[in-house]
Design goal:
The chain is α+β, with helices and mostly antiparallel strands and 346 residues long. It is 42% helix and 17% strand. The relative contact order is 0.09.
């Protein structure tokens, strides 16, 4: 293989990426989920490369009352050019695979990243305009209120919870970008110093680069616990400000929504409430009663229930990440030791 030629494995991956881009033309790239008490099944908008799908008419009817413009595919020039751009990228990938030039691989990757950034900025601009440019004669006007959905993640809009996440096409598009990055890293290698120290000047295997790149990507997209701030954060169940940093808890849904609580009683009540029963995938964390009061997974925590603890809402439950800390606390606050399954019994 010539020094300036694309490796055979990378050429195969380029063809695969081109085929994936063609699949994206037929599937939704982004989705916005709207949840409210009057719509227990939720409302969904799906953004395809060439149109808007989902519960468009219902959402337009609701938007009329708050002064937002109706959503119509023909109002967005992006739906005209986006399929063309996706097809153009597929063609460029095939050209790079055919001519085997490394500079073509790098050029396509750079263009792909630039397009991704421009697309997200344009999407934010679209959401901003629709959420802020409201009809002044709308039936419902809330002074100072804007209805811009989140670019990604969760946002509360009046009584609606709005979740904005990539759909299957979006994840495929991101996957193509990650593969292109991995191919460039494998093709041009990592710096000479890194190769000398870690890999003894040997080329880094393509499989290793792919695994490391994909691992980094998925780790960067995962949602982890965020610190509970005493006096600032409010409990999502009792609505009281968090007053004690030893008893808090947190629930994180798979869509990135974070619920914070000031007491074990509140998080357990919230878990079994009708408002949360539709959630299927989530993680629960409790504040570690000892040490620096970091958040620890409920599933691996040990709990002490004692009336002597006197937590803010009388749940009187403390969490610990090891048996030694639990024993020290039990000596001071006599009570019952529990695991998560015992604590979470209805």
């Amino acid at each position: 293989m010539k020094n300036n030629s694309i490796h055979k494995t990378n050429r195969i991956l380029l063809v695969l990426c081109a085929l994936v881009l063609l699949v994206i033309l037929k599937v939704p790239m982004w989705r916005i989920d709207l949840n409210a008490p009057q719509y227990p099944e939720g409302l969904r908008l799906f953004i395809y490369p060439n149109h808007i799908g989902g519960n468009v008419e219902i959402v337009n009817g609701l938007n009329h009352y708050i002064g937002m413009k109706p959503l119509h595919t023909e109002d967005f020039f992006e739906f005209t050019i986006l399929p063309v751009i996706i097809i153009a990228f597929a063609v460029l990938l095939l050209i790079a695979a055919f001519f085997k030039k490394k500079w073509m691989l790098t050029t396509v990757f750079v263009l792909f990243v630039v397009f991704g950034v421009v697309a997200m900025v344009d999407f934010w601009r679209w959401e901003y305009n629709y959420g802020h440019n409201l009809n002044p004669d709308a039936p419902i006007i809330v002074p100072g209120m804007a209805y811009q959905p989140p670019l990604i993640g969760f946002k509360q809009l009046l009584n609606f919870g709005a979740y904005s996440t990539p759909a299957i096409g979006g994840y495929l598009f991101i996957g193509v970008g990650v593969l292109l990055m991995a191919m460039n890293i494998a093709q041009y290698r990592i710096t000479r110093k890194f190769r000398k120290v870690v890999y003894n000047k040997k080329p880094i295997p393509l499989a290793t680069v792919l695994i490391l790149s994909l691992t980094f990507f998925f780790q960067s997209c995962s949602s982890g616990p965020t610190a509970i701030v005493v006096g600032k954060d409010k409990c999502d169940f009792c609505k009281m400000p968090v007053s004690d940093n030893r008893f808090g808890a947190e629930i994180i849904t798979d869509k990135g929504k974070i619920f914070k609580f000031d007491d074990g009683h509140c998080v357990l009540s919230f878990l079994h409430s009708p408002a949360f029963e539709k959630e299927k995938n989530y993680k629960i964390y409790f504040v570690n009663f000892s040490a620096n009061h970091s958040l620890i997974p409920a599933s691996t925590s040990m709990f002490l229930k004692s009336d002597e603890l006197r937590s803010p809402m009388n749940g009187n439950v403390a969490a610990f990440n090891n048996a030694d800390s639990l024993q020290v606390a039990t000596n001071k606050y006599p009570g019952t030791r529990l695991d998560w399954n015992e604590l979470n019994k209805p």
